[in-house]
Amino acid sequence: MIYQGRFTFAEMAEELERAVASNATWLETFSAGQKKRPDHEIETKRKRGAVLMQALEDYRRAADRNHKKQEQQHGQSLPTKNAPLPAQAERTTMHDENTGYRYGGQAR
């Protein structure tokens, strides 16, 4: 299944945690001993691990910032009952200066 939407910062951080763990497991298994892989593969995996860790830290910070921003906005409510509504004509038609057409109506 292909994911069609955008991942949140927190979801990205979770996936990066899994990737970091997977990379660490690979390094434990294949960096020494009987299953040792060539040195250039090990170095590539170490570099990739460092990149993943940096991205993980960045996404964690972004998720924290986003969470704090949402908490701040949670205290602010949008005006509902007391806010004046535009007149009916203003709600159904909007003039487009570039073409002269009105949305919701006929061309002029």
Task: Describe the secondary-structure layout.
Elements lengths: L8 H22 L8 H36 L13 H5 L1 E2 L6 E2 L5
Antiparallel strand pairs: 1-2
Helix pairs in contact: 1-2
Number of extended strands: 2
Spatially, the strands of the biggest sheet line up as 1-2
Extract low-pLDDT stretches. Answer: none
Q: Taking all residues together, what is the mean pLDDT?
A: 82
Query: C-alpha Rg, in Å?
Result: 26 Å
Measured by DSSP, the beta-strand proportion falls in: under 5%
Count of alpha/pi helices: 3
Largest sheet: 2 strands, antiparallel
* Global structural class: mainly alpha
Order of helices and strands: HHHEE
Terminal residue distance: 48 Å
What gross morphology would you assign? elongated
Helix content: 55-70%
